[in-house]
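Worked example 3. Consider a protein that binds NAP.
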Amino acid sequence: MSTQTVFRITLKDGIDGIRAFQEPIPSAGPYEVLVKIHSVALNYRDIAIATSTYILPTRDHVIPISDMAGEVVQVGERVDGLAVGDGVIPPVIASYMYGGFKQGHDDDGYGSVADGMLREYVVLPATALVKLPQSSLGFAQWAAVCGTGSTVWNAFYGNTALKPGDTVLLQGTGGVSMTGLVFAKAAGATTIVTSSSDEKLAFAKSLGAHHTVNYKTHPNWATEVLRITDGQGVDHIIENGGLGTIEQSLECITASGIISLIGFLDMAEQKQPNMLIPAIAKAVTIRGIRGGSKHQLEEVVRYMGKRGLAVPVDKTFGFNREEIVAAFKYVASGKHVGKVCISLD
Ligand SMILES: NC(=O)c1ccc[n+]([C@@H]2O[C@H](COP(=O)([O-])OP(=O)(O)OC[C@H]3O[C@@H](n4cnc5c(N)ncnc54)[C@H](OP(=O)(O)O)[C@@H]3O)[C@@H](O)[C@H]2O)c1
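Given these inputs, the predicted complex is written out as structure tokens:
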């Protein structure tokens, strides 16, 4: 029987607990396909799982990483709509197909509870894959949209849709934020990006960000955002900080604006117990986002394919233990802008 290299993590050892194993290459069942993985993309989630700081359930010895792009190499006899040679990507949660997030979807998040994609081959249900269009994008760029693409799409279009002319605030320059910048620009929104680094802000400008604010040199960054918007505030905030940033988000959101609560990068304690009162005073919608459904990922792929959009990939590492550990540590360091990938080719 042929074998493949699979990486699993011993959680008590943190990122250094990622180790290689040789395991059988599985075969596709009647409703499944075998996928040869060409690229995987990291999310902050993968770092949080590896360092035991993730806010949702995890499983020891799991295969890390949810996001991959690959090529179908074997098709089960009852599979419809996928053929050998098709490019595919999965949503983060196999059972979250469409509509709102439901109780129980946590049980099969790839790379946290269910085995993820840090391996050469994976068998998946054909219904849990999105077929890629012919395009100039490579496997790394498609892997980069699985989690962050569907999450940002859910934030912008899963409830009240983003409109041309809206102003969007994107916190930081990581994967979620830079994906948000690409989508918000394509939607005709005015964009404001915050970052700890002027160099990263210059990169965001090169991607088309209309305004930038350094939150280190402007610790009261909400004041800057209000100045930029002539005191009106922004219509939509991609909230990546969480507890440590939401107070200022509430300061610079416009009346009836939307805060998409996505990240937990800044878990600073609440400074004042009444900090949520502005949410009431301004009739703000604070909407928790749990990734995106397979249907939303399909919409992302169609949109990106038709509009020729790509999410920036900062760096691509190799598929060996040393490089994989380095890739995780690079994302943990926060030095990246946009996405970080691991290539298996
Ligand atoms: N709810 C969901 O479904 C969902 C889906 C995807 C991601 N997430 C979460 O969203 C967050 C972002 O994920 P990611 O993959 O984009 O992470 P990432 O690529 O690792 O981005 C990290 C970047 O965020 C910025 N940042 C850190 N602290 C900040 C703060 N206090 N204010 C503003 N920016 C800050 C930094 O950028 P600068 O150096 O430019 O400041 C940092 O480099 C994470 O907490 C992740 O777990 C949630």
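Take a moment to read the result before moving on. The CA atoms of residues 78 and 300 lie 27 Å apart. Residues 3-144+311-343 form a domain with the Quinone Oxidoreductase; Chain A, domain 1 fold (CATH 3.90.180.10).
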